[in-house]
Specification:
Number of strands of chain A: 5
Strand content of chain B: under 5%
Distance between the termini of chain B: 24 Å
Strand content of chain A: 5-15%
Number of helices of chain B: 18
Distance between the termini of chain A: 75 Å
Number of domains of chain B: 1
Radius of gyration of chain B: 23 Å
Helix content of chain A: 40-55%
Low-confidence stretches of chain A: none
Number of helices of chain A: 6
Structural class of chain B: mainly alpha
Strand order of the largest sheet of chain B: 1-2
Number of domains of chain A: 2
Low-confidence stretches of chain B: none
Order of helices and strands of chain B: HHHHHHHEEHHHHHHHEEHHHH
Oligomer: heterodimer
Largest interface: A-B, 103 and 120 residues
Shape of chain A: extended
Shape of chain B: globular
Structural class of chain A: mainly alpha
Chain lengths: 188, 575
């Protein structure tokens, strides 16, 4: 056993330098060349001012905006995480019922059977940047009323911002809420 | 809304993996067989230098015991190194967010967790780890712990050759080859794909942003794109951020999700084919692949269906359920891909998540636990095949008894000593999982006051009441024993009770299932080779495959059914 200790320590030091040191630097170098914003994370700007990160969702709960999904971390990306509520937890089910009632109250033209389940349940990261095109569509009457914009213009806007499945074949379609709301502001 | 494109996405992920795993397996067999491969020109001189500086003669053959001693010693060095860095990370460089040092019990748990390829995380990356730790401890250990499992399996491959010997290659050589010929090049390829898709790779601190509605919030980032490739390729699973691969910076879109899915299964699956090429027993490899795939699909298909259908308790409220069980899930992946991921990450020992397992449906949670209890449907890199080998030995023995033939595997007799080791290894898991769950449940049920040091009242451990709370504890020990690292993350596990018990389970659950199979293989290698005859029980047949599957199902079902009945099954029937 003793014969292995010193070689093990030396090999460890070499592996640390090579497989985490040099490897990480190499990826960092590649990032500087190929990644958006040199690897610092892609930001979104309005009139030159950073209003957020493209991939990180933010809180939208005012009537004049398309809403984001509920978040367990209140969209503060200093942290991340889901509610971790189990499917049968009675307190959790009460919260969901409350969220449905609130959604109906603030979207009076929406029928209960049309409330999208994603809009009353929290995402896994608490930072979900997207909603489904259906969840955007259901909010259109409320936004039209709050902003005075025509519903068919809003429908066109949602269609414009709908990102289809990968290559049209794989996965769900979605709408990035931040980019959608920036365009919405431009319509006004 | 659920559409057929979500199903196509899953087919792409599965068949994409198989298509890449077959050639990769052939390549790995060549690497371990010492044949010439593509990257020799780059890495041969580098390896020579590394070994010379370390004072290692990598051409010296070792027996199985020497290999295992070398493995244990270097793992002990890594544990001490990691522990020391973790308790001092607050004062070390590359810590722009000024995250604090870890407490001793958390550092104990975390150091073990990354050394043993488990990556259970009782901390959150954003606040609990410095960039120095993420790079020089976690990324480093994700490379070397994966290579450890692969090297142990390479020793087993060598031992199963048709000859009698105690010389089974050199552990350091297999270890270094796994790193330079497989893990490193694949990691760089995957990293480049991630970078193009907007995954951050920066040393800058958290950014402060004033959002559209005027709220000020911070955005965590860091050198993410270097860690996530090896996190998956090495079936490690430890996330950069708290939300793991549900975090948009750790898994930006559906394409990266496909790549992460393929990456985590790729090497484990390739190892099956590598066995076939290495021993020139391709049919045996296909039988093993078949058994593992049937087992995997038996767990994955129900999960996809249950997650797509959604929570029946919410459906009763009469809303639009077309997006499925969305609690804890992300829109860009959808419920189907999250259901698929939940099983893929638990059959192999990755334990990364793209949705919160605590919020999956009761029987989905049960399947996730079953996947970890078996821990051999593909399994972790190296470790999965080692576990499966134990099931093969038991199946050979039982079928031998049933048909009245001497139990033999690949021309070597299976005798009492090998069987004792196989049975001890297979009984260790239930002992650890059920024993510790019983202990924790006793405290939680009696709401024992554990003292402030142990997380206060035991009832505060749980995030959910009733049966689901029991599942949270059962899941934690199952995940620790399987070296999986995923969790029902509602469990309040950052206190000495959970840090220490899970730490102990992780160590035993790692090294005994490595040493056991290698020991059996080492013993078999020393035995006389008996050429196949008409009287030999064939192990590369459909019948034997079914037999192995039956052994796996009987062992796990019998051992774990009572515990599963108290947790997820009871929750399902109460809904």
């Amino acid at each position: 056993m003793k014969t292995h200790i010193l070689p093990a320590i030396k090999l460890t030091i070499i592996c640390i330098l090579f497989f985490s040191g040099i490897y990480t630097l190499a990826v960092w170098g590649i990032a500087y060349i190929v990644a958006p914003n040199h690897g610092d994370g892609q930001t979104v700007r309005v009139n030159g001012k950073v209003v957020g990160y493209e991939l990180i969702g933010q809180k939208f709960n005012q009537d004049k905006y398309f809403w984001s999904r509920p978040s367990s971390v209140d969209y503060n990306a200093a942290g991340s995480g889901g509610s971790n509520k189990g499917p049968s937890n009675p307190d959790y089910l009460k919260q969901v019922q409350l969220a449905i009632d609130t959604f109906l109250l603030r979207n009076p033209s929406v029928k209960k059977e049309d409330v999208p389940v994603e809009m009353v349940t929290a995402s896994g990261s608490g930072l979900d940047p997207d909603i489904s095109p259906e969840a955007a569509a259901v909010q259109i009457p409320r936004i039209a009323k709050a902003t005075g914009l025509r519903e068919d213009n809003l429908r066109k806007l949602v269609a414009l911002h709908t990102e289809k499945a990968l290559l049209g074949l794989f996965g769900p379609s979605k709408v990035n809420v931040l980019k959608l709301n920036i365009s919405l502001n431009n319509l006004k | 809304m659920f559409t057929y494109t979500e199903i196509l996405g899953i087919l792409l992920m599965f068949f994409g993996t198989v298509a890449l795993a077959i050639p990769l397996g052939k390549y790995i067999a060549k690497v371990y067989g010492g044949e010439k491969t593509l990257l020799d020109a780059v890495f041969n001189p580098l390896e020579k230098l590394f070994f010379k500086l370390s004072g290692i003669d990598a051409s010296k053959e070792m027996n199985w015991k020497q290999s295992m001693v070398a493995l244990l010693v270097i793992n002990a060095v890594w544990f001490i190194y990691a522990f020391v860095i973790l308790i001092y990370q607050g004062s070390l460089p590359l810590n722009p967010d000024h995250n604090p040092s870890m407490t001793a019990d958390l550092a104990f748990n975390t150091a073990i967790s990354f050394v043993v390829n488990c990556n259970l995380q009782d901390y959150s990356g954003e606040t609990g780890a410095s960039y120095f730790t993420q790079i020089f401890v976690f990324t480093f250990l994700q490379f070397v712990s994966a290579a450890t499992g692969m090297a142990a399996l390479a020793v087993l491959f060598n031992a199963l050759k048709e000859r009698t010997t105690d010389k089974l290659g050199n552990f350091y050589n297999y270890f270094m080859k796994s790193l330079t010929r497989v893990l490193l090049p694949l990691s760089i390829v995957v990293a480049v794909i991630f970078l193009f898709n907007g995954m951050p790779m920066t040393f800058k601190a958290k950014d402060t942003v004033v959002a559209m509605q005027g709220d000020t919030s911070q955005v965590s980032r860091g050198p993410v794109a270097a860690m996530i490739p090896i996190k998956h390729l090495g079936t490690n699973g430890g996330g950069f951020f708290g939300a793991n691969s549900a975090h948009p910076f750790e898994n930006p879109n559906y394409l990266t999700n496909v790549v992460e899915m393929i990456a985590q299964l790729l090497i484990s699956m390739a190892m099956i084919f590598a066995l076939g090429y290495y021993l020139k027993r391709k049919k045996l490899a296909w039988v093993i692949f078949g058994v593992m795939t049937v087992g995997f699909l038996m767990l994955a298909i129900p999960n996809i269906m249950m997650e797509v259908k959604g929570n029946p308790a919410i459906a009763k409220m009469g809303i639009n359920m077309s997006a499925g069980a969305t609690e804890g899930k992300e829109i860009r992946f959808g419920a189907a891909a999250s259901g698929y991921w939940s099983i893929l990450t638990t059959v192999i020992s990755t334990g990364s998540v793209n949705a919160m397992h605590d919020s999956t449906m009761p029987l989905s949670g049960m399947n996730e636990m079953l996947a970890m209890m078996v821990n051999a449907f593909y399994g972790g890199v190296g470790a999965g095949m080692l576990n499966f080998f134990i099931f093969i030995i038991i199946a050979v023995f039982i079928s031998g008894l049933m048909v009245g033939r001497t139990p033999e595997f690949l021309g070597k007799k299976i005798e009492a000593r090998e069987m004792k080791i196989a049975v001890l290894v297979s009984l260790l898991s239930p002992l650890l999982i059920l024993g510790f769950t019983a202990l924790a449940s006793y405290f939680a049920a009696h709401d024992t006051n554990m003292g402030w040091w142990f997380g206060g009242k035991a009832s505060t451990w749980l995030n959910n009441p009733g049966y689901h709370g029991f599942s949270e504890m059962l899941y934690q020990f199952t995940s620790s024993n399987a070296n999986n690292g995923s969790g029902f993350e509602g469990l309040n596990d950052n206190n000495p009770f959970w840090n220490i018990t899970a730490g102990v389970v992780m160590i035993l659950g790692r090294f005994i299932p490595i040493i056991g199979p290698v020991a059996i293989a080492g013993l078999l290698a020393g035995k006389k080779y008996i050429p196949e005859s008409a009287g030999t029980l064939k192990t590369d047949t459909l019948t034997f495959g079914l037999m192995t599957l039956a052994v796996i199902l009987i062992i796990t079902a019998l051992l774990y059914f009572p515990a599963l009945a108290l947790g997820p099954l009871a929750e399902y029937f109460s809904m």
